[in-house]
Structure formats: C-alpha cells, structure tokens
Amino acid sequence: MSETAHAGGMARVRATFRGVVEGRSAGELALWLLIGLLGVGLTVYTLYHARFQTLVRTRHSNVFLGVGLALFYLYETQKHLYGTEDVTAYRERDPTPEGSALSGLRSVGRFDWLLTLVSAVVTLLAAAYVETNFDRLLEDAVVVGYTQMDHLVGLVIVALVVDATRRAYGWAITSVVLAAIAYALVGPWLPGFLGHTGMDLTDVARYGAIGLSGTYGFILGVGTTWVAVFIMFAGLAQAYGALDYVLDVGEEAGSRLKTGVVQMAVVSSMAMGSITGSAAANTATTGSFTIPMMQRQGVRDDFAAAIESVASSGGQMMPPVMGVAAFLMADLLGISYVDVLQAALIPAILFYFSVGVAVQFAVLRYGWTTERTGSFDPRVLLKGVHFAVPLAVLVVTLVYYRLTPLSAGLYTTLVMVPTVFVRDLAVEGASLGTLWGTLVDTVAGLRDGALDMAPLVGVLAAMGIIIEMLTQTGLANKVSFRMVGLAGGVFVAVLLMAMVLSIVFGLGMPTPAAYILVVILVAPGIIEVGVPELVAHLFVFYFAMLSAITPPVAVAVAVGARIADADFLRTGKQAMRLGAAGFFIPFAFVTNESLIIWSFPATPIHAAVVAIGVVALVAATIGYDGANTLGGAPRLAYLALAVGALYAPMLMVQAGCALLVVLALGLAQQGRLPAVATSTRER
C-alpha cells in the first residue's frame, strides 16, 4: 500500500471518529454506543443461532425478545432525549417520513424518556427471569403450578409487549390486543355466543406469557428466526446501497420511457414493499422519493400518491418475503417455505401486471408522458452487479437445496459481506480508506438490521397474545361458524363475507398482524365450505393487504396523500381504480386453484387467460384501452370480458383455447395452400 493511500485511509478513519464524537454530550455518546453494541450484537447473535441453533426456539425467542425490546426502548429514549431519527451519525440519512412505522415513535409525555429507559431495563430483567427459570416453567410449573412472582413477571411481559406495540404501530393494533385481553376477562358477563367461562389476571399472565405460550408462541418463534434473518439481511443490503441502486436503475429506465419515472415507482415499491412488513412504512420510505419525481413529471397529485400507495400495498403480496407473512404462512400450514412462494407467485405477478397496465393507461390517457432522451445506459446495471451473487446464493439454497429460510438467510448474508468487500477494493482501489469505509457500512448495516427488526418484536409477540386469548375463549371458532351460518352456507356469499371481514380486520394493521387476525378469525369459515387451506390463507391475506388502500381508513393512501399534499378521498378513489384487479384476482384463484396449486397445462393456460381478463378489467376501470378513451358501452363490454376470463371454469377455458388453436392452424393452412399451388404451376 502506498504512503498516499495509507494517509488517505487514516484521514478517513479520523473523519469518521470526529463525526461520531463531535457535538455529542457524554451521555448521548454513551447511549449511542450502547444502542450500537446491542444492535450489532443482536444481528451477530441471530446469525450465530442460524448456524448452530444451540437453543430451542422458545428459549431463543425469549433472548431475542429481551434484547430486541430493550434495543427498541433505548432507541426510543435516544429520540426523546436528543430529537434525532438518524440511525447512524456517520452516514447521512433522510428523517423518517411522517406516517411510517417509525414515525409512531413519538414522545407522549414530558418525562416519557425516563419511562422508556426504565422499560428497557425491565425488559432485560424479565427476559433474564424467564431464562433462569426456563426448565421449571417448561416442565414443573405446568404440574405444580406457577408462583406469584411468575404471574407478576408474566403480566409485566404482557404490559411491555402492549406498550412497545403502541409506540411502534399506534393504537390500531394495540386496541385489538387490549380488546382480546378484556374479552378474556369479561366473558361470563357477555350475552349470546360471545359469552364464555372467563379468565382472570393469573390466566392472562399464564397464557399470555409466563406459560411460554402467547408471547412465546409460534409467531414470535418464526419472527425471531426466519423473519429476523431476512430483515437483518435487508438492513445490511441497504447499508451497502441496494435501495440507492434500485432507485438509480429505475430513474435511468424512467428517463428512457415514454411514461417516465412512473413505472420506476411501481417496481421500486414492489421490491422494497415485500421486505418492510407495512404498506404505510413502505409508502413513506419509497414514496418520499418517487412521489415528488412523479409530480415533477406532471402526474397529478392524487394519482402520484395513489400509484405509490397501490404499489407499496401490493409489495406485501410479492414473494419472497410478502411482508414477512410468507414465513408465518409456511409455519402455520406446516408446508415448505418454497411451496408458499410458488403458490403466491402467479397471483402477485398478475396483480403487479395489472398495476403496471393501469399506470400505463392512466399516464397515456391524461398525457403525463415525457420525451425519451435516448437509449438505456447499461453501465447503471453494472454498478450493482455484485448484488447478484448473494441473490443467486439465496435462490440456490432455497429452491435447489431446499434449506430453511433461516439457513438460506445465513449463507446469503455470509456471502454478501465478502462480496461487497471485494467489489469495493476492486472498484475504489486497495487502500486502508476503502477497507475502513466498507467496514463502517458493514457495522452500520448490522446495527440497522437489528433496529429495523426491533419494532416488529413487540407486534409479533402481541399477535401471539391475541391468538392465545381468542383460542382459550373459543371466539375464533365461533366467528367462523357464525360467518358460514349468516351466509347460509352459500359458497359465493361466504367468500364475499370473508372479503369484507378480512378488509375490516386488516384496517390499519401491519402485515403480520393483519395476516394472523384474518387467518384465525376468517379463514376457517371458507375452509369449511371446501376451499383448500393454502388457497383460503392467500384469499384472506390478499384482502387484508388491500385494506391499506380501501377507504375510510386506507393507511397507505393517507401516507401517500400527505407526502403529495393531495386530497385523501380523491387519492383513495384513484387507488381503488388502479388496484381494482386486486379485488378480483383472489376470487379467480378460488374459482380455478391451478393459479395456486400448479399443474400442467392448466396453470400456464389459466394464467394467460386471467392476464387477458386483468387487462380488460383495467381498461374498464381506467376508461382507456391504450388507444382510445372509452365510453360507457365499451367499458361494460370490457368488464364482461374480464368477468368471463377471470371466472370461467377451467374446462371451458381449455375448450376455448383448443378451439382457438384449431382455428389458427386452419387459417395458417389455408394461407399456405395458394402459395404451394402457385409454386407447383410455375414448375
């Protein structure tokens, strides 16, 4: 290494330390360092557990819960005391936009920072109590009973989980948790089918936490393993510039398209939305970039907000993460994670295909096009070609070797880190400064991954409490039974009622919470009328996700409208038009299960026919078919075509396709005969 490179590297090291220390008090610096150590330590521990799995899942969940919630509360304390939303002091980052998941982390009192600091300490103490008494709680306490201290610690854990959920995601999901606990307590005084024998506070403590159920149920178990490793991988990838790369490629492609940056907004929101686990958070994150870009292109404010809202909501349905619901679905159904990805792939592609077509038609109809400035510059793609290496490892480990998501995430992360180091050394030159810069990004990514995961810890634990309360009281089975009864057992009526309930239960919820609620309360009802389990889960999941763009709540629309400074109701109307196909596709895969459960030739044939129906539906809702603005009669004709293509029985679809093939062959044969005859006469 040359002396110049060495001097430059040392200068970069000194600049980094100055950026960390300057302007910070001793207390702020100590808190900042503590958060960093806990964040990096939690990510490293997660990767260690993924490799060796020395602890059983429940015990691992307890360790993760203690450290994760403590990290969450410490980060909250930092923001209360010092008013910063920066994840790192040495890397510039835009403040979290209002309306995102993290924007709920606001002070609710003058001394709330003290409460959050105490909560961090209590969380660690409660987790330590469970850890030191784990064997007794798992085996002996079930037989001989729980002590008063057990019940007290159980109630403290429940209270911490509820409080963390409120701080991270607001009162929407928190009110459901509190309602479930209240329902368990007041059961004997409720009328009709809502009544049950009732529970007391010791039962809430036992089933909610200290009995190693509820909080420690399968949801937190999946969250602290499969979900955590992917969220942490995403944090590391973002620190390495993955999001910037996606946006750069999209902007380059947008500048070369007639529709400009609009389709870039759809693609980038799809890519990021699958990981975030919250349509509102994704709208806030990517929308802070894409919405102003669309507005500068001339796209009307309400349409710009609606495009981002629909694309961000749809990202929750897109494999491989599906807003972390894919992991929960695989564990809940007891099937392979790859099987979930395969089942969800075609509907998700159809949905985004519909959104892409709708956006294209809207831009062309209203004249929001741009002048194309030339051909696409492939050098933009080369800037992020190194990301293909870890992604290839992810695909191979999941699809070919059929490893668990935990192991696949581990190997993908372990491959990405040295790949980025090699890339930086090759591109920026071998120097101490390059090594130091990449190391700083790596540490930042390890920390950011844990900080991104920390808010999810509380809500996943809260979902476990809800499930346990509803299961112990029997409400889940009663709701499904009543739903089928009210619909009279009529198949279509049951599906329509399930759609409405899924939208209602999904309102304002983050993705994992919405999925768990609808799958516990709604899915059993449609399974009872003959819908296969996997299809039923995807059906209710889709409508729970579409609640993010369904007024009157429509949280993703609310966030998008705020960024665009657009009217909420107008934005909601446009979002419903752009995302209309999403409300029809779930009925299509219930009608023809080959979209979910693959078979040949049914799956490719029906997917193609549904795609035609989706285009027809988009033309009807947008009022434009790519060439002409449509009046009432043509729109009705397109709608009729859409319904026929989406819901025609598979036998009719195959018969129609076979007839089209015969006609095509016949026409082709007739077209060849004159040419053959002419050639013969000439000879």
Automatic annotation (TrEMBL):
Coiled-coil region list: none
A UniProt-annotated Pfam family: DctM
Species assigned in the record: Halomarina ordinaria
The entry's keywords: Membrane, Transmembrane, Transmembrane helix
Sequence intervals crossing the membrane: 29-48, 111-130, 142-162, 169-190, 210-233, 344-368, 380-401, 453-471, 483-507, 513-531, 538-563, 575-598, 605-624, 636-665
Keyword Magnesium: no
Protein name: TRAP transporter permease
Domain TRAP C4-dicarboxylate transport system permease DctM subunit: 157-599
Domain of life according to the entry: Archaea
PANTHER family for this protein: BLL3936 PROTEIN (PTHR43849:SF2)
Signal peptide: none
